[in-house]
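Write out a record, fold above all:
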Amino acid sequence: IYQSLLKNDAYTEIVALKNVINKSNYYHPNFTFNKKRDHLIFSRCLRTVDEELLCDLYETSCRNGKWTKATILGNHINGNDFTSTQPFLAEMGNSEVLYFVSNRPQGMGDMDIWFSVLGDGEFGEPINAGSGINTAGNEVTPFYDANAKVLYFSSDEWPGVGGYDIFRS
């Protein structure tokens, strides 16, 4: 994950975020900020022997201009035998909700969209987004538009043009 700052109508040099977030030998393909931009949730992935990515979600906070050491989200979000990736933080009313993609057990298909509500500083048990969104195929890239109250996502199973089409709910 890289950053470039906007200063005087121009961007500074692109630099990798320090090793509190980026770790060698891992892929860091997805991330999301909270509305205040002081809390970051990101995917940290390893390639398996079968050439598949096994990902977990981590979090870090920015304090005094520096990111704290990243910590893995709890076992109820991550697991040894499944992937949790593509996080998206959304504000819904007075709550913060973490949408993410996972092939965890009890899903409806290959990759499903799940969500977890933040309460008392911890994310709650993940909830499958349900059959109005998830199919036997893959649903990925959740994005919640708080103003329109619409969840956008891609699916390779819902009827569309083919491949991954964009849908909303």
Q: What stands out?
A: The chain has a mean pLDDT of 92.
